[in-house]
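dumping this here before i forget
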Amino acid sequence: MGAGMKIASLFHPKARLWVQGRAHVFTEIQNKISPTDQVIWMHASSLGEYEQGLPVLTALKKKFSKHKFALSFFSPSGYEVVKNNCIADLIFYIPLDTPSNANQLIELLHPNYAIFVKYDFWYHILQALAAKKIPTLFISSIFRQDQIYFKPNGKWFVSILKKVTHFFVQDENSKKLLNSIGIQQVTVSGDTRFDRVKMLSKQNNHLSWLSLFKGTNTLIVAGSTWKEDDTLLKNFINSSFFMNCKILIAPHNMNHEYFQKLKAELLPKTVLFSELSHTHPADYQVLILDTVGILTKVYSYADISYVGGAFGKEGVHNVLEPAVFASPVLFGPIYDKFIEAVELIQCGGAKVIHNQNEFNEELVELLTDTNKRYRMGERAREYVFSKPDSVQIIVDYLVHLQ
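structure:
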């Protein structure tokens, strides 16, 4: 994979960041971590996993105040967003998973505890941690029957999973699946993303430009949208259904040409976030968010939310961020791998959209029926706050390991 990424880096910006970020990783660790430091290391594959792990990292910083904290990423989409605003003492790209890299990493980092978010299983790194008898935890993990670990040809990997000190999984089914392959060190602690969004709902989410844009209007926020989602939005916005409201669209793909094309295709007065300094936000009906890192704050202003991704094979994006702010949530039909989306539908806080007609009808109903909008929003919020304090379960376990 290393050679392939180097070739790809010649043509692809993310691949270039992937390669450049790993060029001096061991020097970076040596500069920040001394041989006498006590260290807690957390690894997150990308930004989504980081969001899941952050509540645990924050709680551990308070509980283990004398330790240094190291945070690693596999993907540039996580590292590049977090690198300049991170509570960890060291942030780095996880090196390529080879035996020599793994041994050098663990030798230099010498963590007292290693915490992996969800299921980023690096064979040689886990071997090196086990060889040093370093307690290794996986948190917010979720497993499904169709994953390779539970198939005959995946038995070779089970041996390394058994070296993990403890799994904190999201649901009972994940525990049963791990038990079925002989892994007993499992606790059902729930999903730390619930802790994360609860924490975010209590922070200062004020955005002056968004207050000006929204005014006294009903605001629809469409977050993490893909092309299929934007087509639904475009058709709705350009129709007679679009009235007495404002819409903010936050596309998943940060591409300037795409933003300009989408803007040109919308009939109502539309502005990009990057253009707001030259104009007055209240003058526009549609705003396209061509920046990253503030979508959660944006959701706090939403009266109705649409979450993208569920018309593509990867499935729906984060539905908890709008739900925690008591916003009714709409999304497309590919969501079954996301238990929180399933449960949001079951509790009445979300609805599934299959086509343009359903999209138009549901938005019009929510725009005109304030009672329905309020009921759905409250059910969404109540669902989020009904979940257990996963972070406390994990922190208590680590405290007792000392």
